[in-house]
Fold this protein.
Amino acid sequence: MKVKTVELKGNKGVLKIEDTDVYFVNSLRRVMLAELPKLAIDNVIIYDNTSALFDELIAHRLGLIPIPTDLQTLVFRDQCKCEGKGCPNCTVRYTLSKEGDCVVYSGDLQPEHPSFAITENTIPIVELMKDQRVILEVEAVLGRGRDHAKWQMVLAPRYRMETKIQVDKKHINEVKAFVEELPKDLVELKGDKLELKDPSQKSILESYLEKHKADYISITKDPSKLLFSFETDGSMSAKAALQESINILAKKYEEFRGLLKDL
Amino acid sequence: MIELIIPVRCFTCGKVISSLYEEYKKRYEMYQKVIASGQKPKETPKEILDDLGVERYCCRRMIISQVDLLKEAAPYE
């Protein structure tokens, strides 16, 4: 197996994974979606809400706000020493109090501790007209993507197989005529090979191939060469999310191996 | 997608698009003004979305099909 980092900066990650099986990368993708824990607002106590949005809608919007998560310092609420009552080890609290003629942003959520300040602070929660007020208290806890989409940190993890475009050499003249019909800068004909300038435009080439019934050109996918890309919503960096997902996957296999020993 | 206010995240992939929406709206209204006066616009909605970093079409449809009805509903609470 070979792994080459194309990009792993900030919230974006693109890896080139070669000489491995698709199901292995797929299990990584599934862990990223469903098992990676992160903080999200789970309890909302509303003291005053005279805005145009009803209580549950504001609570729903608050739940979707990404909160920076440090997994080393937090535990799940049901596994905490406080037995689910809520203490600084498992729960992060914020308050919000704003009055009229303004837009309430996610940055207006005041944390108990400045280290938990919300980084994505331009998310509009609700718009208040004159004399409208919103006063509330929220609690954020750890959760996993499989329980609710608000706890899903990784956005659109996906993998794509490398494509090889093969050209039938006996029909090279028809190939050249076909390339003339394509939009400029889509493909490049190098001798007897056709290369896509931008691999993400493959579907455009495929639609042209179908239209012209060009069976002298064939596109084959190589399942041993994959381009794995993902994005995070800001609660963790892409590198940390990748490392944590790999740890979770390894722990699952270790647990399974331990159980198999007893058989 | 008609909502009172822009949904926080894209329904399909989960990307936070509400923080990009205000910027899009400002630039889109500029585009509309320029079109209405009959001139050639500096940037089309496609270019605005590309510049804001909205790649996938699931996120793009969230932004371009948004209708803000909050101000209409506000007097009736």
Remarks:
- The radius of gyration of chain B is 14 Å.
- The beta strands of chain B are 2-3, 67-68.
